[in-house]
Write a structure and sequence with these properties.
The structure is a homodimer of 365-residue chains.
Chain A: E1 2-6, H1 7-17, E2 32-38, E3 41-47, E4 51-58, E5 60-63, E6 65-70, H2 71-80, E7 85-90, E8 95-100, E9 103-108, E10 125-129, H3 131-141, E11 156-162, E12 165-171, E13 175-182, E14 189-194, H4 195-206, E15 212-216, E16 220-225, E17 228-233, E18 252-257, H5 258-272, E19 279-285, E20 288-295, E21 298-305, E22 307-310, E23 313-318, H6 319-328, E24 333-338, E25 345-349, E26 355-359
Antiparallel strand pairs in A: 1-5, 1-7, 2-3, 2-6, 3-4, 4-17, 7-8, 8-9, 10-15, 11-12, 11-14, 12-13, 13-26, 15-16, 16-17, 18-22, 18-24, 19-20, 19-23, 20-21, 24-25, 25-26
Keywords (chains A, B): Cytoplasm, DNA replication, DNA-binding, DNA-directed DNA polymerase, Nucleotidyltransferase, Transferase
Subunit structure (chains A, B): Forms a ring-shaped head-to-tail homodimer around DNA.
Protein name (chains A, B): Beta sliding clamp
Chain lengths: 365, 365
Amino acid sequence: MKISIQQNTLSKAIGIVQRGVSSRSTLPILSGVLLRAINDELILTGTDLELGIETKVKCNVIEEGSIVLTSKLFGEVVRKLPPEEISIEADMENNVHINCGNSKFNIVGQPYEEYPQLPELDEEKSFHISKELLRSMIKQTIFATAQDETRPILTGALMEIEKSEASLIALDGYRLALKKVKIDYSEDIKVVIPAKTLSEVSKIVDEDESDVKISTTENHIIFSAGPTVVTSRLLEGQFLNYRDIIRSEYKTKAVVSTKELQSSIERASLLAREGKNNLIKLDISDDTVVITSNSEIGDVYESIPIKLEGDNIQIAFNSKYILDGIKAIESEEIELYLTSNVNPCIMKPLNDESYTYLVLPVRLA
Amino acid sequence: MKISIQQNTLSKAIGIVQRGVSSRSTLPILSGVLLRAINDELILTGTDLELGIETKVKCNVIEEGSIVLTSKLFGEVVRKLPPEEISIEADMENNVHINCGNSKFNIVGQPYEEYPQLPELDEEKSFHISKELLRSMIKQTIFATAQDETRPILTGALMEIEKSEASLIALDGYRLALKKVKIDYSEDIKVVIPAKTLSEVSKIVDEDESDVKISTTENHIIFSAGPTVVTSRLLEGQFLNYRDIIRSEYKTKAVVSTKELQSSIERASLLAREGKNNLIKLDISDDTVVITSNSEIGDVYESIPIKLEGDNIQIAFNSKYILDGIKAIESEEIELYLTSNVNPCIMKPLNDESYTYLVLPVRLA
């Protein structure tokens, strides 16, 4: 393999595929990135076997070929080279010669034959979505996926396409986040995507201008954004029937300023943190919500004006879970829906059905 | 005690004195900040007994008095309050009531009588220095203080005033950094200041517009910057006679671009890091310095043009120590002075005697 390529072009491409490389892999070859020079392109690949990321860049291919280079070292070398043309040549012994300006590196590579092949997938269903929509869907739900592995299916988010509407749903047993968007696709899809995959996709689409094509097979999902393709295994198993959890009946509806609610709960949580459970109490009555919390070191009392419909209610929450939801809501005002102090609270942006956050209360003794 | 004060004024003052509070103190009262309301001022104090920081702000004193509040919690509460007037009132039981807008906090305080008094010091000698000069003196030397406690005196920097010249010197057995500036003061001073003190002073003067007054007593040093006073114990013991280490004879003088030298050594150190000692080799001959390094995973060869006077030389260094010095030099070109491959290398900014960095070579087998 022999190529020459601009430093900044290569550096950016390495940054993308490195997201697929695990630093904790037990298989040494997986700490590398695969370089393939074909026609007038360099194709780079990083994978941890669950998730694979491939991108391609134009370059001057003097001799076609392939090589695997340690991801971390190769990335750092390229990033630290001057913004000039880099020549990369792999010899028969897999030694790689990298020349740029007055710098000459010789780095031991690994044979490309040892690198695992990404699965060849026949895309069964596929649709397009704008990168802004995809990013906001991920950002508004991913934090609600389960962090522990006791129920593996909950470490992913459910993507459900029905009647030209795409939903992304995450839940961890304490709260649920649901984002819906309209798309131009009429078939049904129902898959559970690992949170890590969604997180990497969200970062990658950030760096690219194109819309994203999403394709699914029985066991995989493929995100294509410009020259970059992210392939991920799907999680196996049955996701919870989330529709049963989100009830539409309520006895109390309150509309409150998002910013004031967030600031007050953040202040209250300073004391809640000192106690157990990050416990804060909300007392909603008439035109005010009073937020209180206490611990050995003191107590706090916050009051915010609200617009109330329905019954007064007193209810307690883990402040972290309720704050996560408030931060995911972008509108200036939030609607809170409550039924009793043992039923979930539902939060939505004002007059906007596209986002739903549901959080379980803490039962007080 | 009862006061009212603007949120941003109080928040800034807490940020300053919190630098003096240790998070690892064994004495509970030291995790607090002392508040004293006197005349029309609030005086705040934080200390870990080695280092004490005091600052004062104007406020509306309704009732004079003093109280100690947990530094971390008090700081966070004030930072999260809206930018309005805050009322703070301590009652007879040391409970503190903090009110601002629609927020009411009650926090358990501690009696001010238990807070240690900062030493009352008679300033023996004192001089003024501009904050820019003081900051650059600290920044260019502090990194060369010893990190381990085997020779406690080397965890500080020597401040030496002689013939209207102030020098700050730090060394750790592997390298030495020396910065000299002219000041308007003719007496002699020789004290060793803990690195932590210098680091905090550097951050505090950053936030203030005033010049700094430095005063010394037998065992203490006092930095006064506007409304803020930093008092620190001095380190006891004899500092190394650094003048004996910095020789003026040399056999090789090379002038090289600071940026090129830094980039090349940074790249070389990517491979040096993989081996032992971060070892890089410099081969200075004629009009070029060649920098090489190698490890199991590969090798690197960098060449940079130089202006050479004197002998050719081959010498090896720990790349970290030489990089620290290059980064501390602000001029576009660096002068390197060398004698042999077992004698120290001295680095200076081009045509500038105010800064000296000395680094020991690594002897090759």
